[in-house]
Amino acid sequence: MKKLSVWFDSEKNFLLAWLGLALLLRLAYIMKIGFSGLSMDALDWMDTAWSVASGRGFGGSWRPPGYVFYLAGIFSIFGKSVIAVKLFNAVLGAATVLLAYLTAKTLFNLRTARITAVLISFYPYFIAYAGDALSETFITFMLAAAICLLARTSVKPSWGNIAATGIVIGLAGLTKSTTLPFFILACAWLWWRTGKFRVGFMVGVFTLLTITPWTLRNYFHYDKSYIMPVSTPWFTLYGSSCDEAVWVESLEERDTPLKENLSQAIPKDWAYISALPLPERDKYCKEKALAWLKANPKKFRNLVYKRFLHFWRLYPAMAWPWQKHVAMATSGIYIPLCVIGMMVSWRKFRDTSLLMALLSSYTAVHLFFVVTLRYRVPIDTFVIMAAALALDAGMARINHEQT
User: Fold this and answer.
1) Is the model more confident about 167 or about 373?
2) Within 13 Å, how many C-alpha atoms sit on residue 382's CB side?
């Protein structure tokens, strides 16, 4: 046991062990479920990516391009292979462990980094999504990469780090546009952390340069009549700002799939607006959504409250009992520890403020749209990191009392 402890003292050995374990856990799960376990959204992502890979083009702009082009790259080599996507997910999952480790080590300390790596390796949500073809595993990795680079740039603001940070932030934004408000705060954080305005400003410039080609594509695709940086939020906002959305958030917790008529969750004119050209659809949805928000402020406040609770649930509202037990044994512990970690680390506020900005801005953006717990998963890396801060503080206190 002592020899094993000494072996783990080496940073290289520790990383080899936990990255290897993270990869093996994900591969074992993928082998167990094989070709099954795909969500309906995953099939749509794959169809769009296959259209790109086979030369038929991207089509409309309902999906942001980041994950589509990632899948298209896989399909162009391996064909439309579900297993290839899942295997790449396993690798991305292990890489996320490494990125979180490096971020925690840069911002905090080695022990917090190690605790973070261990907890992420075993995290059930990350393992489960590796077995699907949804965008969650990819955006989790991209967000981890962006924040790792932000932390690195805050310590060493070289031009190479600044450019890499801005480009990766832009790619993350092209994967999930709801991350972009956080990255504005992140550029301000870099300015504050380094004391140099140009650092945060130039990261923002490289971010915009990365997003600009897709913006121009959309502009010319719609005959120079429509400007859309990544993807339009208005269609989704309208579906999230209506009486039907209130019905969705009023559903009770359950242990089995819904049996209700799900047409109650969709506005009655949804088929009509879905068939409209995007510029017309965007204008129509914007008017309808803003009109509903103006006419129903009390309903909207209640909706935001319910969505906040839904977004930060300790376990899914709809899941089999065993899944809820697993969630309570992991995220059910990590989320309260995250709050404690932020509180006990107040002296490290310059560093923890980056995590606070992410958790708060990412939550705030999602409160305007239909919420599912899986939308929170990409930031669970940093919930776990904050929980690791709490555990590190507890271990430090125990060691202090023993000495």
Assistant:
1) 167
2) 26
**Dihedral angle sign, alpha carbons of residues 267, 270, 273, 279:** positive
Helix, strand, or coil (residue 315): coil
Q: Which tokens go with 29?
A: 């799960």
One-letter identity of residue 342: M
Neighbours of 192 (CB within 10 A): 15
Residue type, 324: K
Q: What is the pLDDT of residues 253-299, one digit of tens each?
A: 888 766 656 667 788 888 898 888 888 888 899 999 999 999 999 99
Kindly tell me if the per-residue pLDDT of 28 is higher than 80. Answer: yes
User: Do 375 and 139 contact (CB within 8 A), yes or no?
Assistant: no
- Per residue in 34-53, pLDDT tens? 989 899 899 999 999 999 99
pLDDT digits (tens, 9 = 90+) for 347-358: 899 999 999 999
Alpha helix (H) residue ranges in 134-269 = 136-155, 159-175, 180-194, 197-221, 234-240, 243-249
Residue written as token pair 């990869």: 23
Residue pair 197/205 in contact (Cβ under 8 Å)? The answer is no
Q: What is the model's pLDDT at position 43? A: 92
pLDDT value at position 116?
97
User: Is residue 246 within 8 Å of 294, Cβ to Cβ?
Assistant: no
Query: How does DSSP classify residue 251?
Result: P
Angle among Cα 152, 125, 41 to the nearest 5 degrees reads: 100
What are the E-state strand segments in 328-391?
none
Q: What is the mean pLDDT of residues 234-250?
A: 90
Q: How far apart are CA 338 and CA 359, in angstroms?
A: 10
Q: What is the pLDDT of residue 7?
A: 52
Q: For residues 88 and 67, what is the distance between their CA atoms, to the nearest angstrom?
A: 13
Contact 6, 89 (CB under 8 A): no
Token digits of residue 3? 């020899």
pLDDT at 110 > cutoff 90: yes
Nearest CA to 242 out of 269, 272, 205, 274 is that of 269
pLDDT for residue 258? 65
The SS3 call for residue 254 is strand
Contact indicator for 166, 202 with CB cutoff of 8 Å: yes
Residue 128 corresponds to which tokens in the numbers above? Answer: 């489960």
CA gap 170, 132 in Å, rounded: 25
From the number of C-beta atoms within 10 Å of its C-beta (0-12, 13-18, 19+), residue 277 rates as exposed
